[in-house]
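// run 5 | inverse folding | seed 20
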């Protein structure tokens, strides 16, 4: 059974940092990404990356503040979040797909596998 398990969420003040981690139980997926969903809003892409090519994509709202990285040998995907803002508050989801998305666009419907989510709360 395929599983994606996130960890690392929590509460932090504005300007602080958090690091999210995701472990995949199965093989290394071609494209993996992080998404988030705030209360009353649609799920949106934050960052995504391809296996092998190292291509990465970031949403404009997090570019320059967040960094996505993956370790294919360990089947892990991390998201380093710096200079956090209150508007970053959301449940963050790790997602994966068997497709090779080039560039790794963050379209929710393209990702088949999802983690359970981890809460990130940024206070002002």
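// decoded
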């Amino acid at each position: 059974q395929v599983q994606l398990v996130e960890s690392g969420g929590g509460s932090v003040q504005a300007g602080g940092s958090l690091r999210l981690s995701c472990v995949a139980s199965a093989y290394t997926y071609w494209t993996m990404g992080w998404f988030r969903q705030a209360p009353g809003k649609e799920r949106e892409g934050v960052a995504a990356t391809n296996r092998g090519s190292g291509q990465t994509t970031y949403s404009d709202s997090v570019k320059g503040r967040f960094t996505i990285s993956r370790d294919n040998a360990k089947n892990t995907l991390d998201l380093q979040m710096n200079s956090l803002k209150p508007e970053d508050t959301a449940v963050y989801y790790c997602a994966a797909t068997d497709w090779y998305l080039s560039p790794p666009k963050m379209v929710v419907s393209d990702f088949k596998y999802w983690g359970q989510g981890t809460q990130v709360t940024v206070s002002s």
